[in-house]
Amino acid sequence: QVQLVESGGGLVQAGGSLRLSCAASGRAFSSYSMGWFRQAPGKEREFVFGISRSGGGTNYADSVKGRFTISRDNTKNTVYLQMNSLKPEDTAVYYCAASDRIGVPTRQYQYAYWGQGTQVTVSS
Fold first, then answer.
1. I need a labelling partner for 46 at 20 to 30 A (CA). Which of 6, 25, 89, 108 fits?
2. pLDDT tens digits, 36-46
């Protein structure tokens, strides 16, 4: 198993930036593909960005293309989500998740382990 703890959320003005971190503990971090999901009030949780075990492959939602990037440091057991040019519609609780599937999964059911989430609020 793996335990995940997100950090880095907060309140930011539109156009600003935040970097989310997700620290993992437990079984070997490098054996998991990692993903970020988000859930806005009244909406379903959606996939944002994912990264393969080695970091060589990524996948992302069209809504964040060109604004968000993902990275991981397997020596620090941490995955990051750099969010630039934030918009009010990016406001949500952001969740980190780990999957033991190959590649870069994009569906919630493909991720077995989840963090508690961190709130991101973008003001207009």
1. 25
2. 999 999 999 99
